Amino acid sequence: NNTDLTPIKKSIEANNPGRALKQLKDIDTLKLTKQALAKYYILKAEVFDYQNKEDSSCYYYLKAKKIYALAGEMDKSMELNITLAYLIKAQKHSLKNDAQKYLVEYLAYAQKSGDNLKLANAYAELGALKISSEEKEESLAYFLKAKQLNKKIKDSKLESQLDNNLAALYNEYLNRPDSALYYFKKDLVYIQ
Alpha helix locations (H) across 14-95? Predict the structure, then answer.
């Protein structure tokens, strides 16, 4: 008859997925609100991700995404697209297109919302997904779009992420070590 999800989150944060899984089994999901049920599935996904069971983790993130959408919580539903894209990209057997589909959906949502931070995050995530020798120019274009938007919103966490990714892109794929050094130095301000 338990509906309190707080101890589960604490178990996950304490790197104790076994205890978290036991606590999840004690939750009476029939008594949870839609939002709490979505959170329950996110916690379950986090446990499976911690255990390197990516397929199960994706399954529960997708369940949470669907429930948030049904509950009218589109921001939360769409935010899970970024999590899903990262999870899929990290799998060795995954196709980049599988991850990209979630980011493209998030980009469309961000464009429709008119929220510059969401839009900048979408471009940043697409840029990160495209970091490779085959898609280096496309990656750069996405990062520069995100940087342009971030000039308006001035999000320091995003700026640090962009500078770090640009440094890696310039150094590893664009063979421009001077540009890489420029972005690494810029990022030092945020990480100190």
Answer: 17-25, 34-50, 54-70, 74-90
| Residues 186 and 149: beta-carbon distance below 8 Å | no
Give yes or no for a contact between 165 and 172, defined as CB atoms under 8 angstroms apart: no
The answer to whether the CB of 99 falls within 8 A of the CB of 129 is yes
The token duo for 114 is: 């008119």
Q: Are 30 and 50 in contact (CB under 8 A)?
A: no
CA distances from 59 to 37, 46, 66, 83, 88 (A): 14, 11, 11, 12, 11
User: Cα dihedral sign for 47, 53, 56, 59?
Assistant: positive
Structure-token match 């991700």, residue found: 49
pLDDT in tens, 21-73: 999 999 999 999 999 999 999 999 999 999 999 889 999 999 999 999 999 99
pTM of full prediction above 0.90: no
